[in-house]
Amino acid sequence: MSQLSPDLGLHDVNAGGHDTVYTQSMLPSPGMYKLDILLKRGHNLAIRDRGGTSDPYVKFKLGKKEVFRSKVIYKNLNPVWDERFCLPIDNLHEPLYIKVMQLREQIIQQFKNNVSQRAIARNLQSIISSKDSENLEKSLQVSSKQSQRLSEVHKKSQLWRSMVSISLIEGRDLIPMDQNGLSDPYVKFKLGNEKYKSKTMSKTLNPQWREHFDLHVFDEDGGVLEISVWDKDTGRRDDFMGRCALDLSALSREQTHKLELDLEDGQGQLMLLVTLTASAAVSISDLSIHLLDDPHECQQILNKYSLLRSFCNLSDIGIVQVKILRAEGLMAADVTGKSDPFCVIELCNDRLQTHTVYKNLNPEWNKVFTLNVKDIHSVLEVSVYDEDRDKNADFLGKVAIPLLNIHNGEQKAYILKNKEMTGPTKGVIFLEADVIYNSVKASLRTFETPEQKYIGEESKVSKQLLLQNFNRVKRCIMFLINMGSYINSCFEWESPRRSICAFLAFVLVVWNLELYMVPLSLLLFLGWNYFLLASGKETREGSVSEDEECEKDEKDSDKKGFMDKLYAIQDVCISVQTALDEVASYGERIKNIFNWTVPFLSWLAIAALCVASLLVYLIPLRYIVLVWGINKFTKKLRNPYLIDNNELLDFLSRVPSDVQVVGDCLLSFIELKLRFSTA
């Protein structure tokens, strides 16, 4: 292979898997090299399984970074891989580590060589060469063509060929791992780089998971789905319970297969439903050539998702096409005052990314991504990262756009926000998106379980998030309290005109109420609010102003001292503590009525329930509600000085909660002990 010239910008693929744009200032001195590696086969590998075989694969690390991992060859001591890959290098003396691994991360064999050596091992071919200056121009032309091919390989490595839908139903007769003769099993799935972990079922050998998820298939032949079962242990390493493998190439497409897989290195079975779907409409292209710009292709897509085809392939709802144009004013993540930004676009569990633009705070990507829409209520997330060669990428900013909020063909500048999406960070990104979907399919999908993200951020304790959630709950409760106060003001005749109107409306509604009027009233309420929004008489600024007020409160809290913040947290904790005590107390009091904690109150409840049952049996419910309402409205007129009360809450207040019961028992025990001691 050839050395890259320092005076020519080339488009290549770096070791991290991103497209790389090399410019004159970026290329190292003396040059950049491309390493071609062909992994052929292994011979007489070590035995690592009980059956006298191994499940080997090979990991390649350049320095401290893993650059390639081969596929797994099952139950074979003489595996044949025949896999080729390429990576650019800038240091011929950097060591290349080669590890032959067992499927469960046991090292079978390990090599270490400098990249500058001609041959790394007998079954590994690596060639590196540098052309003379007089042949430099020819070598650059060859390298440029190879770089374009590498870019295509990188692009294809992101695009999945098809999807496999998996329903994990149950496990049968699993091996007991705990001292009580039971287990806490969960299942791990791995298909290439795609992973999924099921929920843990406690204390059972026949777990019922009933989980559904999708994985992307990148191999044309389908690949091998690796399945392992584990026992969850708190405070120590989880125990291995068994494994199995499923060759997807043996399954027919567009057909649901009911599979009962026996576990190896353990006992029991797993029951799965597996469906291998056809290739998804996923693509990455340049700005000059993309799907919806072609009138013929665009018309075909519109016909595919037209209302006439509403009941064909209900899972294929539509497509979204996103143009990632450029960003401006990004955060400087490197010590040089620059960044190496690239974009990651995510739609639920679908994830694609752009190439990296090096040493630039105003990058231009000009890439077009096309993704399938499986749920019209999904949120399109576009994140910007700074590439670091020796460690994880640095986060620069993120935007989240609900698909229903996208206006087709509209180019917009979005302010980048932090990871929690609670505040802005530095920079803006320019995007243009188009969504084409079938409204009938999208409506039917709305009533199904939404797809969950397999990889999400772990929850962390946050003072601001605690205050924000507390204020949200407080607003909801205050809304209910204000509504109750408004209704009570009608009973109290604070405004005679309003009370008369409310009384007449109550009598009219109760006297003529039919069951169909309940959804009809909700329909009228929705229609009225839509009319107000459409006419401009009412806007959604209320929620926006509340969010702005929350952000203002957060900024003000940052300016406060430590004691002020401590008092604010203390007030929130006291309010939450009081609210939880009230809710728990009323729940315990209702329970204690039926537990005969206070027999007098339980007998009284029996008498009241008997009277209520008799009244409802003899008198229609409409008349009972009408009498109750008339009594409520006229109570203040009959006795202006009457103090209003709620009979049910007054009754519950006489029933002791569990805390009060325990306290009374403790006092009785102390009194009894004192009596015995004095006697």
From TrEMBL:
GO MF, any single term: calcium ion binding
SMART domains listed in its UniProt record: C2
Gene Ontology BP term (one): regulation of neurotransmitter secretion
GO CC terms, sorted: synaptic vesicle membrane
Keyword match Calcium: yes
Segments crossing the lipid bilayer: 503-528, 600-628
Highest taxon of the lineage: Eukaryota
InterPro entries, per the entry: C2_dom (IPR000008), C2_domain_sf (IPR035892), MCTP_C (IPR013583)
Residue stretches making up the C2 domain: 16-138, 145-261, 295-416
Record key words, sorted: Calcium, Membrane, Metal-binding, Repeat, Transmembrane, Transmembrane helix
UniProt cross-references to PROSITE patterns, sorted A to Z: C2
Lipid bilayer topology: Multi-pass membrane protein
Cellular compartments annotated: Membrane
Family: Belongs to the MCTP family.
UniProt name for this protein: C2 domain-containing protein
